[in-house]
Design brief:
Layout lengths: L4 H25 L3 H6 L6 H12 L2 H14 L14 H15 L5 H9 L6 H33 L2 H4 L12 H54 L27 H9 L4 H17 L6 H7 L4 H32 L7 E2 L2 E2 L4 H9 L4 H37 L5 H24 L1 H17 L2 H9 L5 H21 L9 H17 L6 H11 L6 H10 L9 H26 L3 H21 L8
Antiparallel strand pairs: 1-2
Length: about 600
């Protein structure tokens, strides 16, 4: 076992620190609903941005990104567009502003702003609550078991069992570790609410910066000594053609099997479809989880936009320093790593294998704290979002609209405990429900896009359209894996999009339009661009001084420049660690030019409030 006493002490110190944060901030969190859920909207944008970025620095995502960089090299920078990673640019440029202008507490409450609070608006409100809770529970369950399995690699169960007064099967070791760290997470987030989550995330991010820089130095030194990496031609090239054209036969033959199994070929077509899906998903706005809650926690719409900018600036360089460094060490010492399970190579074991073998004691403790902190931040933020929907959109809307702060605080605790209990139970059943949960999460996000693009941009879109668009998309996404077995989900995404769009448009046109008072209020408050002409005319007739949003072209221009900047700030640490000075300089120059353009066309044009 590589982990030593000093590593244990680092982990214990971190857990005690976040616990103290929750206790200190408990009293402030109990002042009101907004103080608990949104930190009283008093935190500066940079704190929220760093916190949001810290929560996105998750274990499972980092493990996956290391594995794809090992296999695809520098081209792997493009693959997170599947999520899509550039949705933060759309958020930064305009969507965070629109979302924050609504002045609501949750995504479900936003539905009431868009569709009103009359009986015909209820389908959209209930749909988004169900979507939010199911996705939150799914993510929390996977996070729970994922963390436990990660810790188990570094602290094997047979070292722990002799010190326990009772016997637990090794099959449940990951669950035990998951429960322990989940309880610490729940403690500080349950007591201190959003503010304690943000402060814990700040500490975690500072640790990850130290860890990423330290491992980068180790990797760059090793690469300098080795002079080159054992990789095929094209591995170091950011760009690609129709085909991937990367042959690992003379280096690590099993990588070719991994490329074939991933189904990303022909890479050019895959990239085009991935980009198209990513743009549509970004236009839909954030899903109702911790990312949306951080936007709604910003002081003003302007600070909401700046918060989303900070996410890009602080997350990507730090994360890719770590990813590239671990990949370099994995390639240089591949023959010495143990990454096989049942005689099958698992490239997702590269990250823990490298850390467990080549990172010195003390620093290893910090690495584990950083990656565990990422889990804890993601779990805590998702947990806070689930609480917000249960308390704000179910308890206060349907059961006790006049609840006192004391009653709200008590309900936050009770419902929070219920949420974490359910997520832990799902985690214990993960071996049995893994495929089902994956299916549900995939279906939820498959059906999300069409309805949530239309809600921003088309005045005739109503609550019924939202409901039928979401339902048809989800059902189609549920059926697609059976209809297209063995197919990469991205390739049948156009069918899901088409069916969900038809459901959304048909559901809207076959039911009465929303009342104009609700539409006018939403349009004046949020000020979106899109197909709003009848509403704009009505608003203008009542208020001749009102100016519609005419920034569509500028917003799209800034999105293109922003994605260019985001790609260059991602490539910069990759080329730096790979000791490629010319490419590093080019990436830095592109980033500088993009930043200058955005300063003039975006930052200086941001609203004052």
């Amino acid at each position: 076992m590589k982990i030593k006493l000093i590593d244990f002490l680092v982990i214990i110190a971190y857990l005690l620190l976040v616990t103290v944060i929750g206790i200190i901030l408990k009293k402030q969190a109990q002042k009101s609903k907004n103080d608990y859920m949104l930190g009283g909207r008093s935190m500066p944008f940079w704190m929220l941005g760093v916190s949001n970025a810290s929560g996105m620095f998750d274990i499972s995502g980092t493990v996956w990104m290391v594995s794809i960089m090992f296999v695809y090299g520098v081209k792997s920078i493009w693959l997170p567009w599947l999520w899509p990673v550039f949705n933060q640019i759309f958020m930064m440029v305009y969507l965070s502003i629109w979302l924050r202008r609504s002045n609501v507490s949750t995504g479900a409450e936003w539905m009431l702003t868009r569709f009103g609070d009359k009986k015909d608006a209820l389908p959209s409100h209930k749909t988004i609550i169900a979507f939010a809770l199911l996705s939150c529970l799914g993510f929390m369950a996977y996070g729970f078991i994922g963390l436990g399995k990660f810790i188990e690699i570094f602290i094997p169960w047979h070292f722990v069992q002799p010190y326990l007064p009772f016997t637990i099967s090794a099959a449940y070791a990951a669950h035990v570790y998951g429960v322990i760290f989940t309880l610490f997470t729940v403690f500080y987030s349950l007591l201190g609410g959003m503010k304690s989550i943000v402060w814990a995330d700040l500490i975690h991010y500072a640790i990850m910066v130290v860890v990423s820089v330290a491992i980068a130095v180790i990797a760059m030194t090793a690469l300098h000594d080795a002079r080159s990496l054992p990789v095929p031609m094209g591995w170091n090239n950011l760009f690609f053609g129709k085909e991937l054209d990367m042959d690992w036969s003379t280096h690590i033959p099993e990588v070719n099997e991994k490329i074939k199994a991933n189904g990303f070929s022909p890479f050019g077509y895959f990239f085009a479809l991935m980009t198209a899906k990513g743009i549509l998903a970004s236009l839909a706005g954030p899903v109702p989880s911790y990312d949306m809650q951080k936007v709604l926690s910003a002081k003003t719409p302007r600070e909401a936009a700046l918060m989303s900018m900070i996410v890009n600036v602080v997350l990507l360089p730090t994360r890719y320093l770590l990813i590239t460094s671990v990949t370099v060490l994995g390639l240089l010492f591949y023959k010495d790593l143990s990454i096989s399970i049942a005689d099958k190579t698992d490239f997702e074991r590269i990250l823990p294998a490298v850390l467990n073998t080549y990172i010195p004691s003390g620093l290893l403790g910090l690495v584990l704290v950083g990656l565990m902190g990422a889990f804890m931040g993601t779990f805590a933020g998702t947990f806070n979002a689930a609480q917000a929907y249960l308390v704000n959109d179910i308890y206060l809307k349907s059961f006790n609209p006049k609840a006192t702060n004391k009653q709200i605080s008590r309900m936050n605790y009770l419902l929070g405990l219920a949420v974490v209990t359910i997520s832990i139970l799902l985690g214990f059943l993960a071996k049995d429900v893994n495929s089902i949960l994956q299916w549900i999460v995939s279906a939820l996000f498959g059906g999300y896009i069409a309805s949530n693009v239309l809600k921003w941009h088309w005045w005739r879109f109503n609550s019924s359209g939202f409901f039928w668009g979401m339902l048809s998309g989800i059902l189609c996404a549920l059926a697609a894996p059976s209809i297209f077995p063995g197919t990469v989900p991205l390739f049948y995404f156009p069918i899901i999009l088409l069916i969900s769009t038809m459901g959304a448009v048909t559901g809207s046109l076959l039911t009465p339009a929303m009342d104009f008072d609700t539409l006018k209020k939403f349009y004046k408050t949020v000020r979106p661009w899109g197909f709003w002409e009848p509403v704009a005319i009505a608003v203008k007739s009542e208020d001749p001084s009102f100016e519609p949003n005419r920034r569509f072209k500028w917003d799209m221009f800034n999105v293109v420049v922003g994605i260019t900047a985001q790609t260059s700030i991602t490539a910069l640490p990759v080329f730096l660690v790979l000791l490629m000075p010319e490419q590093t300089a080019i990436a830095a120059a592109i980033l500088a030019v993009s930043a200058l353009i955005l300063w003039k066309t975006w930052y200086k044009q941001l609203p004052d409030h």
